[in-house]
Specification:
By secondary structure, this protein is of the alpha+beta class. The strands form 4 sheets. Strands 5-7-6-10-9-8 form a 6-stranded mixed β-sheet, with no helix packed on it. A two-stranded antiparallel ribbon has the order 1-2. Strands 3-4 form a two-stranded antiparallel sheet. Helix 11 packs antiparallel against helix 12. The longest helix has 79 residues. The protein starts with a helix and ends with a helix. One of its GO terms (biological process) is lipid transport.
Length: 689
Amino acid sequence: MCSSLGYALPLYKLSWKKIKFLTNPAETQLNKQTRMMFLVALSFAYFAKALSGSYMKSTITQLERRFDIPSYLIGVIDGSFEIGNLLVIAFVSYFGAKLHRPKIIAVGCVLMSIGTFIIALPHFIIGRYEFETSARRIVNSTLNVSPCAVGSSADLTQGGKLPEVPATGCEGESNLSMWIYVLLGNVLRGIGETPVQPLGISYIDDFTTEENAALYVGCVQTISVVGPVFGYLLGSLCAKIYVDIGFVKMETITITPADARWVGAWWLGYLIAGVITLLSAIPFWFLPRSLPMSGFLFSDSTTLNIINVGKFKSNSTHRDFFPTLRTLLGHPVYLTYLCVTIIQLNSLIGMVTYKPKYIEQHFRQSASKANFLMGVINIPAVALGMFSGGLLMKRLKLNIMGAARFAFGTSLIGYVLSLFFFAMSCENAKVAGVTLSYNSVDRISYDKHPVFTACNSDCFCSASDWDPVCGENGITYVSPCLAGCTDSAGSGKNTVFSNCSCVGVAGNFTASTGQCPHKDDCDRMFPYFLALSVITSFIISLGGTPGYMLLIRCIKPQLKSLALGFHTLATRTLAGIPAPIYFGAIIDSTCLKWGQKRCGGIGACRIYNTTSYRIAYLGLTLSLRTISFIICIPGFILLSRQLKKEEENAINKALANGGTELEALRKEEFIISNSDQMSDNSTDRETRL
């Protein structure tokens, strides 16, 4: 043992002065408590970053409406987190291990917290939220102005707009859009998140035994699953609260959380997430740079990582990095696996990012309810599926081919079940001039319909406003003016418009604020959608753990670290960044009615063609998975060839080893035989003498 250590220490330029033996039980107990403190701190950091990340996805529609931006820009903001991560991941991975890792993680948590606060900053800069309404846009309007002003639609400017009074504050408004702050804050979140996982996991791996390391990493990953649940629940809570709560009288607000113009207190959740992330940084400032391991304590000057006594790992970089990378990318099974996972992650990330929005738009649920369901139903199903997949793999004792078949089978079953989502449709909202013709209100049509007709020809209306009212005939009108309403009574949500010439049902010409519900068919279909969503999420997640084990086992052990790192880099670059952008752009193409910004220009979408939305969203998701399945076919062929080749090599090696051992035995017998002969000859000589 001493001789082996005496050989190893000079090799790694480590002197005995840097090691001291721990024999004090109290000191050993203290170090055990320090390890547990680091484990708790890292788990809390994982929880904080998962919470803020899922909360970002829960606020997609809130950000769209608040900043009047389309979905593809929201995709850019969402993908900016990965951009920030990729900017510093190489730097952190190389230099982070040489520095004080707990403090580097603490700095990362502080940066994440600052980034989260920056995301909330625009709320305190741009002032109160003024939602789109037709009443405030009419020239010389008063508080109780008639929705249908005296005039004619012929008096409109080109493009169907009123000669409006310019919105106050537009002259001094900065040309820099406020959503840029959200993007920059999310980039900073990505930069801050970078050291948490690689440095945290490596710290655990370096200063614990192999048996405990697996347990500790499992605990951290389990806690990180809880984060998204609380993130979506926080998003659900904040979506119920009006954005300017405490600064406006809620009695004067005419919109509800179900309205397409409603914006919740999105900023409040970011402040809460920022505080939680900041708190997670505190314990890391008090943790040591290194910990003793199995009886040894290394000083700060050592650059070694210890797994067990006498087992040393050098942090020196490999000089043959590019040849090794070339070897890795030349591995056919690994390259095929990489292509399949990139395509499937494109499908998964795009689907998850816009799933709450899909529930809102297609099934006419509020943002609060959509986020609540994601947090309470979908996320736990995914977590349970991943855990069950690992358990089944252990129970069934699956080899590499068995793991590949299991992952493929669960993904294929989930794919087949997902096809039933196409049948779960809701009828589009009946909006006169958008999905219905004023002359034919019984049949939904997506042809271009005029909003001006005989019943509102005497009104001075704008075609660009979105201030929907629900007529007594069950039809939604774009604005009270376009419904031909001449009088109004009440205030806030209780406002009632009367003498609406376009409504006219049995002498009742009234309309109320907001869109007509029309949720009967959706309410019947929605529970089936939720049930199928949970089942498919669980089944697809079953293959997550076996699929990951396939990645680890299909390559040589010496290439494992590089393979995992390159896999993470490739999936974040080619899936995490682009998927939300092009999914958002395709969703934007299904918009029927765009809102208007306060100072002019197109804002967020107010109503979608739900049929086109469903086909585009589900079609793109399943098309990507179809491509991945096609690539899996040659992948299985290559994997079977590799396993067959490895089996043949193992047999040949065993035979070669067997022949070598037989030759050694023969030599040993020959030596013994010669020794016996020499002994006999010596005895004969002695006898003769």
